[in-house]
Please model this.
Amino acid sequence: MKKYYLFFLCICLGFNAFGQKKDISGVYFSEDGTKIEIQGNELVYTEPEEHQPIWYNDTLAICKIKQLNKYILEVSSLEDFYDIFRTMEVVPSYRDLKTDSIKIVFQFPYSLCDLRISIEANNRFFSNDSADSNCVYIPKGTEKINFSITPKKGGTIHTVYGQSYGVRYLQSLEERIDPDADCITIKLPLLDNHFFEKYLVVREYIYVEGDILHWKDMDFKKR
Model:
């Protein structure tokens, strides 16, 4: 009986030691100057200010932290990727133009480069052209669409190793539209110049070893 008790006690103590959490607040740097700053349950991931090439914002990600135990952190972006659709507006207009197409107009603040816009309607794909870069024409009578938006230029390089952490493209869910409209305006106020450069973190894990964080094949040492 005594042996079983000691065995059970060892298991409990071992589990408690592994599961005990520690204070990880502070500032951590990698060798190339990339910085992680942790305050409470929030993590801010930034690149050096003097970087090449220059991009829109040095802060790549702001994340919430779930400390699973004293060794493992689970991190996810505070900003929900789908917020862009929650703030989206779809506005029909009727001009009695007697045309056989619906003009889909996209409005957004993004202005860094041309965007490739593709719409799927009735199992066919329609894209914007250079003459009317933010507009796509689809057949009259269409009731459902989904669309994708991606920069025509290559993704932003964020590290000296040629890595890009930015969002590659925006893909919508199925959207119902009025088949009798002459024009549909889709407003995306959150599609700004920072959208395709932000790093979307979804349940990634950081290993804590003393004053060092191991993440993305890099070591970040506390200062």
